[in-house]
């Protein structure tokens, strides 16, 4: 990929998918990378995560395709369709998982911890410095450098800091001066992942869902609830998530345990024998309740001097219903690394071009999470069953094919010239516009 003349020193806060992708993209371009993460290991928490081709195509280029191959080996790569069903099991629509072979090759899904481990090992192989078990407490910026201070007082300085510190980012407040604006409390998601036993796999009502020749994805919808379930790797791995009203106003946490009996009022609405059986075989103690919080899009992603930039969930905290949290973070990472490689050490220029390229696209995806979450609410089943395909697309819209590398390589010079010729204003005004026809394959988003 070529390298910059004097390697830039990049400090990344957060080793989630966004931070790890930024580390990989920057290392592949010859920059020096230090990545700081508050967890003490490559965190294995979480259940199921998907990367769709807009992110997957970037991953597939890493290390000549090795990372993508490994993701397919450990994840779900035999999904044909996502079966969208009514709460009682009636089929609404089969939504194609991939629209063509290229789409299939660049779509990854699987256990979040396993896929995360795969990214993490790639960062290790590429030689980034990884500092684990340390929390960043303060972001700092001068005219010619940016840095962070850790809880133990240690400081790290570099040419820039990438704040990939997730949904509850402290950079938002410290770097952008914004409060933690959030809305949408009132919903949460029960989430689980477990390795299935042979006995569980032979449950009479789970023959279809646990078939081994395919990996399986089912979604059951009721009026205001949805349950999404996966089985993969010969049905030995199972995950499901159930979105439900959150009467208790629980905190945001990836480890807040939920008792099975607390789920009963919601589960009983899914009368499909398959959904009931899946709940029945779910081991006790394996389920969490995750608060669904909507944080509106930010007005900007960069600091005053342009040497700190927020990416991933820190910049645009996608709702899981958009299915794009990981992929959008990877698009940010690639775009930023490309701009840094070509900015001739003008870091503020690189971060400015990055946010101008990413702003409208990422906001559009971000907003879609809300639209898809609410798509079946207050719509009669008669109406849905009259045009099930359209409703399926509304709930799970495909993004139009998009190559973030092509975009940044064709737009870098254009936007650089716009900046140099004084095109200023809010990001809403100056950022790269969306393509005609929008970014989704249906007209509904
Ligand atoms: C533990 C965990 C489990 C998850 N499980 C799922 C899942 O099952 N399914 C799903 O769709 N999505 C899951 N997500 C969210 C998903 O990974 C993200 O939405 C998406 O990949 C975008 O990634 P990100 O890197 O921007 O943010 P995140 O994945 O949230 O990563 C942010 C990272 O920054 C670290 N961090 C935060 N603050 C500091 C600080 N001050 N100092 C140092 N480090 C800091 C966090 O520990 C975290 O590792 C999970 C996230 C986490 C953190």
TrEMBL record:
Domain FAD-dependent oxidoreductase 2 FAD-binding: 10-41
Membrane-crossing segments per the record: 6-24
SUPFAM superfamilies assigned: FAD-linked reductases, C-terminal domain (SSF54373), FAD/NAD(P)-binding domain (SSF51905)
Entry keyword annotation includes Nucleotide-binding: no
Segments forming domain FAD-binding: 152-341
Region of interest: Disordered: 426-445
Keyword Transferase: no
InterPro entries (UniProt xref): FAD-bd, FAD-dep_Monooxygenase_BioMet, FAD-dep_OxRdtase_2_FAD-bd, FAD/NAD-bd_sf
Entry keyword set: FAD, Flavoprotein, Membrane, Monooxygenase, Oxidoreductase, Transmembrane, Transmembrane helix
Entry's Gene Ontology molecular function annotations: FAD binding; monooxygenase activity
Similarity annotation: Belongs to the paxM FAD-dependent monooxygenase family.
Annotated protein name in UniProt: FAD/NAD(P)-binding domain-containing protein
Species name: Didymosphaeria variabile
Species lineage: Eukaryota, Fungi, Dikarya, Ascomycota, Pezizomycotina
